[in-house]
Amino acid sequence: MGKLKTVMVGLSFGAELLEDAPEFEYFELVGGFARTPATREKFSKQFGVRGYSSYEEALADKDVDAVAIVTPNDTHRDLCVPAAKAGKHVFVDKPIDNTIEAGREIIAACAEAGVTLAVGHNSRRSSSYRAAKKMIDAGKLGKVVLSEANFSHRGGMDVTPDEWRWYRDRCPGGPLMQLSVHNFDTLYYLFGSVKSVCAKLARLATPAEIEDTAITALEFESGMLAYVGTAYTVPSTAFMNIYGTEARLSILRRSDEIEVVDKEGKGRHIKIEDQVNTRAEELDDFARCALTGEPPETGGDEALHALAVALAALKSSEEKRTVTISEILSK
Known about the structure:
Layout: E1 4-9, H1 11-18, E2 27-33, H2 37-47, E3 50-52, H3 55-60, E4 66-69, H4 76-85, E5 89-93, H5 100-113, E6 117-120, H6 127-137, E7 144-152, H7 155-158, H8 175-191, E8 194-202, E9 213-220, E10 225-231, E11 237-244, E12 247-252, E13 257-262, E14 267-271, H9 278-292, H10 300-319, E15 323-324, H11 325-329
Parallel strand pairs: 1-2, 1-4, 2-3, 4-5, 5-6, 7-10
Antiparallel strand pairs: 7-11, 8-9, 8-15, 9-10, 11-12, 12-13, 13-14
């Protein structure tokens, strides 16, 4: 079947995606593009690939099959749409963009060109979440009624005015859009569509323009409830607790164990084997889907749902009311 010859766009985070990656089965890095020559040269030497002097040069290369775009959120549309029109398959990191309009333009451009679109929601690929999904679907937790999650770190304390994350118009919601969006997608993977949200955001400690703290309450179409917290100014944490009528399941991100406590209060730790590099897996899965024509696990529809939840949370905080996902998607 061969490999998908791919150019990385956005090389600082792109290098992080590729660090410690195992040998790919379907994905092949053939080049990189960044506006800064020094960044291109460093990436080119590090990975032994071509550095393109312009994005147009990369898209014009007939030996390139795809692009992997890991640039600031608000640049995604302007990079994805030309790539699709050039016949290149598109991988773009989460969120798909900052607006529903831009997300839909990306989806439409890829559909019209007949190229694969995959969006980098990698958290759901964690071996722990895969194990949790199997337990939930098998009824091991009973009827799930509540979940809580938090993904936080201190990134908002170090951001400076020369970075896009400093500005609210480029990074709306701060950690809500950058961190909670992971939880929004993982909860969608585990429990299905969100119906409505009620949220509160605040700027409490960061020197940047963005809000740095957020709490979001979610009501799912199933009736289940959840709440998601995040902060950009605190020591790193990432967890999810899932509460069912028969058992409670606790997951710590990057842990190789999950904890299950039954309704009698008896707990046990389950070691999760076969831990995966989620970033490498999503790139290889993108390449496989592009080569076979199969739909990716996190394509346009999944990405649009996660973005809609984040935008609903922003609107809820601003207007001090509950906001439905259908309201956001109807625009």
